[in-house]
Design a protein that fits this description.
It is a single chain. Strand 7 and strand 8 form a beta hairpin. Helices cover 11% and strands 66% of the residues. The termini are far apart. With 169 residues, it is mostly beta strands. Strands 1-2-3-4-6-7-8-9 form an eight-stranded antiparallel β-barrel.
């Protein structure tokens, strides 16, 4: 699966060869929904020509605030601007993220969630913009098994969707 993602990213980067070198940065505040929780967070965006990278930090709203257990989620992503017309931008994206939750179990070991998703990112606006993204893909949950003394995991289908406000410079 990771080899496929690497080849997919390389193929997507072919249209950018020989294009002008324009850079931009943006930061956005967003609200998100995922398989494990509702998230609130920040996303940093760096663009070079028509390619971009993302860095994300979120925290699970329900578990962090309502259950008083900090539930962070960090991720990175890569995308290519497929449509870049005035104040409208559409891009396919590939993201990977990791979440960690300290549970109230007897073993004292945290649970982990790993996600690898493909989807899209829409931006409406220039300096101040509305951002919406949705993605889905492989979701893996890792829990510590006290009998075997190691982590074991289960994989399934996962999703992530977010809306937010972005400021670019």
């Amino acid at each position: 699966m990771r080899l496929f993602l690497l080849v997919f990213i390389c193929v997507l980067s072919l249209p950018s060869i020989g294009q002008e070198n324009k850079r931009s940065n943006a930061i956005s505040l967003r609200a998100s929904v995922a398989k494990t929780d509702y998230f609130t967070g920040v996303e940093w965006f760096h663009s070079l020509s028509n390619q971009f990278i993302l860095a994300q930090f979120d925290f699970g709203y329900s578990r962090t605030i309502l259950q008083s257990r900090f539930f962070p989620r960090v991720g990175i992503g890569y995308g290519i601007n497929l449509i870049d017309y005035k104040a409208f931008h559409l891009a396919p994206i590939v993201t990977t993220s990791l979440s960690r939750l300290s549970t109230i179990s007897g073993n004292g070991r945290p649970d982990y969630w790993s996600e690898t998703y493909a989807g899209y990112r829409l931006v409406f606006g220039k300096k101040w913009a509305f951002v919406q993204s949705s993605s889905c893909g492989l979701f893996q949950e890792m829990t510590y098994n006290t009998l075997s003394g190691k982590y074991s995991g289960v994989s399934s289908f996962g999703f992530f969707g977010s809306i937010g406000v972005q400021y670019a410079w």
